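[SOLVED] Predicted holo structure with nicotinamide-adenine-dinucleotide

Edit: marking solved, answer below. Original request kept for reference. I posted the sequence and ligand SMILES and asked for the 3D complex as structure tokens.
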Amino acid sequence: MKKETVAICGLGYVGYPVAMLFADADFNVIGVDILEDRVKRLNAGENPIKGQEPGLDELVEKVFKVGNFRATSDMSEYGSANYIVVAVQTPVAEENKKPTYENLKGALKGIGQNMKEGVTIIIESTIAPGTMEHVVKPILEKESGLEAGEGFYLANCPERLMPGHLLENIRYYNRVVGGWTPESAEIVKKLYKNFVEGELQETDCITAEIVKAGENTYRDVQIAFANEMALLCEAYGANVWKVREFINNCKKVTETRPEALRQMHFPGAGVGGHCIPKDSWLLIHEVRDIVNPKLIPTARYINDFMPLHMYDLLKDGVKEAGKELKDMNILVLGYAYDANSDDDRNTPTVPLMGKLKENGIKFEIQDPFINDYQGDIESMLKGKDAIVVMTGHDQYKELSYEKMLKLMGKKPLIIDGRNIFNKEEAREKGFIYKGVGNI
Ligand SMILES: NC(=O)c1ccc[n+]([C@@H]2O[C@H](COP(=O)([O-])OP(=O)(O)OC[C@H]3O[C@@H](n4cnc5c(N)ncnc54)[C@H](O)[C@@H]3O)[C@@H](O)[C@H]2O)c1
């Protein structure tokens, strides 16, 4: 027998797998998205996420056999829901890094105008701390005429997932449930227990908002540290990957100390995706003028610089080869921002492309997961002077030096932004190799 109705607002990387999990837990699930073409494809049973997502195809097939998911663009459908989960995008504006909330506000308006009394509304989108109080609650109350905590329940239950591990992350990661009231948090906790095996930790909205944006900011700052270490290692003539290995090898030395692990992150060709490049800005948004934070914006600038540094490494490599940049014919490997994913939002490949274009350098792009760039890699390697590795897709790791030497031009270059080749081996075989943090 079907349980209650859950409406999922926004069927992207977050909303779609969440919808599938609710459906699999025997809820009647209505997915709402403004993209009519996506709605059509989802109703035909298509999994819209094309990267490697263990278990998702099978889950989609199972859910469609049972038939308790359907998608729509009709907002009046919110009226039948007992629970509404909001998972729309929450970008920041390019010019001032402030949240735009166009999609979030549109979604809240549609929900507020159609929701029934007693419904529970859960914001899964990542939002700037204070948004539940200053944006979400006022819009819902105005549009519905109901009061949060009285006429409806309200909570912030942010997602912690990463493309490539969507189902695993949703099912097994601990997560915070920030309730507008303790009762709201209690209801949401009970709801998510239907498929979340991780711990559901109750708190208030402001704490949950800070935890989510803060967690991604932590990662951004850590990656920036690793990137700066990479730049230092390049200048010292050291290998950042060796340095990282030794730093992270600091383990438990005595019984009284906990496992004091250092966890230096990976340096690389840049940070992308919908989340990490904007969540730092969301975190500091409301209090920026009071606190004047320095570390967090600096980390952002360091990470944004890395694709441009890839261009500098290319320039150095070309010089070492005794060639001219203008004569180079380059293959850029990777357009998605992350390995084995089809997610290309805020990809570091775009700023690199900008640099190459600006300097009139001939290049092609290959990416097995992106429709526009799925050319045959071996044909594309033919006659190329350099490869620039922007994404660590498994397919690239399988490229043999011998094959590349056969296909590419004389004295070929490897510019490695993801440490997928071995510097010593590549040089021994006759390549010019420059890697981030390892030149
Ligand atoms: N992608 C991730 O790895 C990830 C991880 C954790 C949290 N988040 C957060 O989750 C949120 C969603 O991210 P995503 O990656 O799923 O975004 P997405 O762009 O993949 O999906 C958002 C979907 O919402 C739809 N939408 C926009 N406005 C709408 C409206 N008014 N009504 C109905 N649908 C609407 C869009 O058409 C789109 O399909 C963001 O706040 C993001 O920061 C994302």
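OP edit: The chain has a mean pLDDT of 96. Thanks to everyone who chimed in.
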